[in-house]
């Protein structure tokens, strides 16, 4: 199975962080998991160009304090990043408006924005590993 260099998990729910981290460990799709409880913490990480680890996959919650998922994506797009990243919105919503907004964001920016319906499962993570672009 293909492995992902690093995964960034941005979610303010500690239960989601715990369960997704465990699933990543069980599936062994990555040995490096960075977690942040809001979008601002993650932006601070990505703004630091001296960081040696650049996560190829970002799992992003939408409803968070300080900076929500949409604001994170808008700010992330302004960073001078040359590496490829794939952003998956973690959502329990099947609202057509949310799905349409993901499509708009995917077309708006040079990086991919997709959605992943909660709950996250081993099969869903394994499928993501197969499509994450390699460096």
What is the CA-CA span between the terminal residues? 16 Å
- Under CATH, the topology can be stated as Rossmann fold
CATH top level class name = Alpha Beta
Largest sheet: 5 strands, parallel
Mean pLDDT value: 90
Low-confidence stretches: none
Count of alpha/pi helices: 5
CATH superfamily: Response regulator
Radius of gyration: 14 Å
Structural class: alpha/beta
What is the share of helical residues?
A: 40-55%
Number of domain units: 1
> What is the percentage of strand-forming residues?
15-25%
Count of strand segments: 5
User: Numbering strands along the chain, what is their spatial order in the largest sheet?
Assistant: 2-1-3-4-5
Order of helices and strands: EHEHEHEHEH
Task: Based on Cα principal axes, name the global outline.
Answer: globular
The CATH architecture would be: 3-Layer(aba) Sandwich
Care to describe what's here?
With 135 residues, the chain is α/β, with parallel strands linked by helices. The chain has a single domain (7-131), classed as Response regulator (Rossmann fold, 3-Layer(aba) Sandwich). The protein is 40% helix and 19% strand. The chain has helices at 14-27, 39-47, 69-76, 96-108, 122-131, and strands at residues 7-10, 33-36, 57-61, 86-91, 112-117. The protein has a five-stranded parallel sheet with strand order 2-1-3-4-5. Strand 1, helix 1 and strand 2 (33-36) form a beta-alpha-beta unit. Helix 2 packs parallel to helix 3. It starts with 6 loop residues before the first strand and ends with a helix.
